[in-house]
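Second attempt. The first submission of Type IV pilus assembly protein PilM had a stray character pasted in from the spreadsheet, which I only caught after the job came back as garbage. Lesson logged: always re-copy from the clean sequence file. Corrected sequence (353 aa) follows.
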Amino acid sequence: MFGKPKKARKQLKNLDVTKHKKTSSKLIGFEVVKNVIRMTIIQGNDIIYGERLLEGTIIKRDKLRNAEELSDAMRSLSKELGVSGGHVVYHLNNQTVLIQELALVTGKSEKQIRQTLFLELGDSISLPFSSPKFELLVANQQPINSSARSKKKASQQVAEMGESQELVEKEDAITYIVTSEDLLIELGDCIVKAGLKPTAVEFSALAFTRCFENKIDFTRNFMLVELTAGAATMTIFEVGIPIYVQYEDYNSVGWRYFHDGDELTYFFNDEKESVELNKLIIVIEQLTYYYQTNLSNNQDIHNIYVTGDHPWLVGRLKQMMEEALQSPVSMLQFPDAFPPKYLLSLGLAMKEV
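This time the job returned cleanly.
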């Protein structure tokens, strides 16, 4: 049913990334993109990674398709990589991610903030999905650890934050990420059925920035553009905190993954991709103007960082963006020794839990 995975090993110390503190268990960074799953594991200074090709698209909008096939593929790949029974960090579906801000939080505990959010989510914020799940993001404070929980039965596990009783200080407003809880539970169930343990969930932009902590200026406002398989996610950061996200399906139907012998590869039409990328660049330019005029007090986007596994990232695309955009453009990639398609799963595996 599944194609042969490509398993490889690289050295973390050769990639110029910050090694985070050790956790009690090895974490598996798990990514889903179209009809491909990818896993990355950090063992000491070694990075082990691999992928599987499935028969059809895994997630369509916020619905999981063919969960049994997905669980079988995860079980097979984790066994191939030698991490059966491991702890998994997986990512939110960017099509269903919203970032919101809640004002007047100084002196409130996290429990009080969450109660206020439940009221606001049900009353004044329109969501493109049911059963919202959210995570709080507080500037200049340590991230609050995630923990697994069960819903209806023990196998339905999904990571969520604990309710800290500490008061939020020196913050007039707090940022939170909202996403679809139902999809997280479905993915958590698949992970459990694969013999693995769902440990945490992560917004992809945070995972990517973790890979490039030494290359991003977090003291300035910036936009991170993620390009993967004809889809783009643009996230605006202020003081290292994401404050706005926008997802664009600019040409995903034009991309497909397939096996060429034992190698997993992709195809897209160059002319079509070029046309659609130029349209996307216009959207990025409009988003920088929207930030300046609507989201901030006439502030600028100082840098646009672009990452992902698009093959044009360093050459052709960089030139296209530099010619069209006012803000400086920087492409975030590791040396050729590490395949860029595993960047997201690497950032997930680096999460502290």
